[in-house]
Specification:
Number of strands: 5
Structural class: alpha+beta
Radius of gyration: 44 Å
Strand content: 15-25%
Order of helices and strands: HHHHEEHEEHE
Number of helices: 6
Helix content: 40-55%
């Protein structure tokens, strides 16, 4: 009666139960030596499972795609902004060149002008030096002041209006002689000081 434990288990039927349970479990294929998954029949998988890195879930892949899509969108937006900025810069250069050509030899500034004419431009008080005749013409609206290259150039009304048509920001002063509220010298009251 010195039956081994194994013999006793076989007699009781417990071992048969365990062996039958193992037989019902699906057999897993052995890991291939080439590192590629193997389907039934021994052929390697050509599906997306082979392309997916091990341990990466579908959620991780979707997140990576979303980040890549966002990066592409941001890159396109940056390129669009850069193109628009380059276009605006090109247009500014063209306007500046047109104004420069228009002003060549037409500035009426005099080196010996001794009277300052103050005006508001760009939120600050600016000054151009004129003689007595130019001061009267400027206040009457016959002359204008154009800002070009950091200088304030005295020009005829016709040239000032052409500059305004090209780039209104470059026109620093052009008095309207018909403006309501003009003082005795033709300068609007809000420019008097």
């Amino acid at each position: 009666m010195a039956d081994s434990l194994r013999d006793q288990l076989l007699k009781s039927g417990i071992v048969k139960q365990v062996q039958q349970d193992r037989a019902r479990e699906p057999k897993r294929p052995a890991a291939p030596s080439s590192g590629k998954p193997v389907r039934k029949g021994g052929k390697p998988h050509a599906a997306s499972h082979a392309a997916r890195p091990s341990g990466q879930s579908q959620q991780d892949i979707d997140l990576a795609k979303a980040y890549a899509l966002r990066a592409q969108t941001e890159a396109r937006e940056r390129q669009r902004v850069e193109r628009e900025a380059a276009e605006q810069s090109r247009l500014r250069r063209e306007r500046k060149q047109k104004i420069q050509q228009l002003l060549d030899g037409k500035a009426l500034n005099k080196a010996d002008a001794d009277q300052p004419r103050n005006f508001e431009y760009g939120g600050k008080i600016r000054r151009v030096h004129v003689d007595a005749a130019q001061l009267a013409a400027l206040n009457a609206g016959e002359l204008g002041v154009v800002q070009q290259g950091g200088r304030y150039l005295l020009v005829s009304r016709e040239i000032a209006e052409q500059v305004r048509d090209i780039d209104p920001h470059q026109l620093a002063l052009l008095v309207d002689p018909n403006a309501a509220g003009a003082g005795d010298d033709g300068v609007p009251d809000d420019l008097m000081w």
